[in-house]
Amino acid sequence: MAENQDLEVPQTLEGWYVLHEVYAVDWARLRETSPDTRGDLAREASNWLREAAGSEGDSAAYSVVTQKGDLMFVHYRPTPDDLNRMELALRGLQLFDYLIPSYSFLSVIEVSLYELTGIAHKRLADQGIRPGSAHFDDAFAQQMEEQKARVKDRLYCSIPDHDYICFYPMNKRRGEQVNWYSLSMDERRKMMRGHGRIGHKYHREVKQIIGGSVGLDDWEWGVSLHANSMLPFKKLIYEMRFDPASALFAEFGPFYLGIRREPDQLPDLLAGKLS
Questions:
Q1: pTM here?
Q2: Mean pLDDT for each 10-residue chunk of the chain (275 residues)?
Q3: What angle do CA 80, 83, 88 make, to 5 degrees?
Q4: Using the 8-state DSSP alphabet, how is residue 174 labeled?
Q5: How many whole angstroms separate alpha carbon 246 and alpha carbon 243?
């Protein structure tokens, strides 16, 4: 029991809840409708997206490249209830009659505090406050609130307005040969430090949003990369594959690539055009 009380778990800070929804368009049924009907449903969808993007949080639409889907909607909201309201609002549109669900992913924007967790533990230990002691939880919570104020802009940001998105879910391996969660805190911290150095090399080209999804969806994280060219996605992810944190311990789900579309571009998109 004492060993469990002393377990040093890396803390995380959470911000907006995030929903990625991918749909295929039933093009055959859509083409059977009259031009007036197609115009009405496109305008209704455009107004919905424009209003959604102006709500607390943010919303965006993407044209999906490849046959994995046609449209991807991304929503940032304060609570899961707010995300559910966005789902229900979409289901109430005429457009939804012509959409086929392809994929969805729920997460919450997360900043991991590998380095700062260790620093906080050491600061409290220097004051004689150790895990399991009477004052530890309150003192540690105060440390986390200070860090949350420091990274508020990362937790409660708008959806990056870059031209392209690359979204994928991932896990850390828990297999018989290697198990991320059986490593010591120092080993994981060292690997994440090296992983972060690679990511920082691309920070001018790529904006990365990490969503924590442990207990929320089928994978442990959802990663969104935003850039004005797709090639940096390839280069960044390829280089990271050689890093031990990925080479030994990362498992990746499907990748979804999308092109950002503004609300007033939806009519052309639903007409099969990329304006």
A1: 0.85
A2: 51 93 97 93 96 95 97 98 97 97 97 70 76 77 77 92 97 81 80 74 90 96 97 92 83 97 94 82
A3: 125
A4: B
A5: 6
Is residue 168 flagged as an active site residue?
A: yes
Exposed/middle/buried for residue 56 (C-beta within 10 Å: 0-12, 13-18, 19+): exposed
d(CA 206, CA 140): 33
Question: CA-to-CA distance for 161 and 61, rounded, in angstroms?
Answer: 11
**Which residue shows structure tokens 């707010």?**
82
By three-state DSSP, how is residue 162 classified? coil
| Whole-number pLDDT of residue 229 | 97
Helices 136-150, 114-126: axis angle to 10 degrees equals 140
Which of 62, 164, 168, 202 is catalytic? The answer is 168
Helix residue spans in the chain (DSSP H): 2-5, 27-32, 35-53, 80-91, 114-126, 136-150, 152-155, 185-201, 231-241, 244-247, 266-270
Axis crossing angle, helix 80-91 with helix 35-53, rounded to the nearest 10: 170
